[in-house]
Design goal:
Strands 15-16-17-14-13-19-20 form a seven-stranded mixed β-sheet, sandwiched between helices. Strands 10-9-8-11-12-22 form a six-stranded mixed β-sheet, with helices on both faces. Helix 1 crosses helix 7 and helix 3 runs parallel beside helix 5. The protein has about 500 residues and is an alpha/beta fold. Strand 6 and strand 7 form a beta hairpin. It is globular. The longest helix is centred in the first third of the chain and has 30 residues. The model has no long low-confidence stretch (mean pLDDT about 95). The structure holds nicotinamide-adenine-dinucleotide.
Length: about 500
Amino acid sequence: MTTRITHLIGGRSWEGASERAGDVHNPATGALTGRVDLASAELVGQAVATAKAAWTGWAGTSLAKRAQVVFAFRELLNARKHEIAALITAEHGKVLDDALGEVTRGLEVAEFACGIPHLLKGGFSENVSTRVDVYSIRQPLGVVAVISPFNFPAMVPLWFVPIAIACGNAVILKPSEKDPSAAVAVARLWSEAGLPDGVMNVVHGDKEAVDALLTHPDVRAVSFVGSTPIARYVYETGTAHGKRVQALGGAKNHMLVLPDADLDLAADAAVNAGFGSAGERCMAISALVAIDTIADELVEKITERMRKLRTGDGTRGCDMGPLVTGRHRDKVAGYVEEGVAAGARLVVDGREGDFDGGEDGFWLGPTLFDHVTPDMSIYRDEIFGPVLSVVRVRSYDEGLALINANPYGNGTAVFTNDGGAARRFQNEVEVGMVGINVPIPVPVSYYSFGGWKNSLFGDTHAHGAEGVHFFTRGKVVTSRWLDPSHGGLNLGFPQND
Ligand code: NAD
């Protein structure tokens, strides 16, 4: 039996007939479990109108009340996090623990947004000119859109939505059509938390819905996360239509291992960061850059660890789950073939092996290539699967140059016991998020998340102070309360005295 997954508009499930729908599968069994409504441009227009109508009241709601609603949402999300994690595993495939981890990281953004009264404090300067005061305030934008990818169905929407709402905006969330249920379940909590209907809406869809959001005159800002070609398209189209846009794109994250590193720690980290969530993380390590002198030993340690991993149904305590769709699984397996054909050494072949799940699940086990060179497609492309490529270099400088020449710049890590080398790396590497002996350096919610180069279009990163800045616009007020001494005509440019 399949479930119908509907839009959430104005606090209610949208019950009208849908012209188009998409398939949702359980990746661990391959079974079709849901059909998700795909919105037309007209329906997106209705959702935006609903959000706009709700916005005025919400924008005028006190900071005290807004903070209470976000706090109540945080409590509800915390209470329901296991249910949300189960929904993620059922549609995305990642193992339950990992799904819970993503909800928990999203929860931290809600916790950050509870501090909105403090975060929205402006500046005030008394007597900038005689008896003239100046102050700055930040105000909400209006209706904002959040468009999210399949790989973090709960966390990525949570990077933006609590802050957008706390700042006084109304939201249209367009989650990935591949695994949409978790986003709807989280969005429903807002009504329970006391948010007025229409401030938070979910519209499912594909390109048609995205285009409608990017061109609608009442959508003021767009936060997008997804692959680089679509991020670039969203940025260009949204900004051409006068919107503020932050569009986070794909990644190819390198981990540089220097000869003095603790190789056991580095091998653990490479396996965790390479194969967690089946490599379907924008911060996954996919290129391991090893200095030649330690490469053999490191590859051996990684291989030993990989042999112990269990791949299977995310509900059965396995280490790694399936890939999200059959099509994606075949695409990643295609890269494994290309790597072999290009002459890389296939050390562990994930196409072989036993999988603890349904026969028709979208399986591919952890895969390791050694002697990968930068011209090979397995190095050049973002594979977004459990495929780790070892690239050997002769020196720190060669490793750094390789990383800096890559068109992506999302995350990177260096493994070393040399503080001086680590400090040099942090300064010289052209990547937005850097780990020092930390393989997945996802910033905590009160810092901001975002890459450089082709990993982010726009200049504002997600959450933290930059998130608050993105979802508000500044106004500066210069005030003078009249005093008889201020009379008289003067057509010159205002000067301060
Ligand atoms: P995707 O680009 O296919 O889809 C992302 C969103 O865009 C979805 O909501 C989808 O419906 C929509 N979309 C897809 N095709 C479109 C089109 N032609 N026109 C308009 N909209 C379209 O990405 P995905 O496969 O869902 O997610 C994986 C990608 O996201 C990877 O590249 C990964 O690196 C990236 N990602 C990046 C970050 C980051 O922070 N930089 C975080 C998570 C994921």
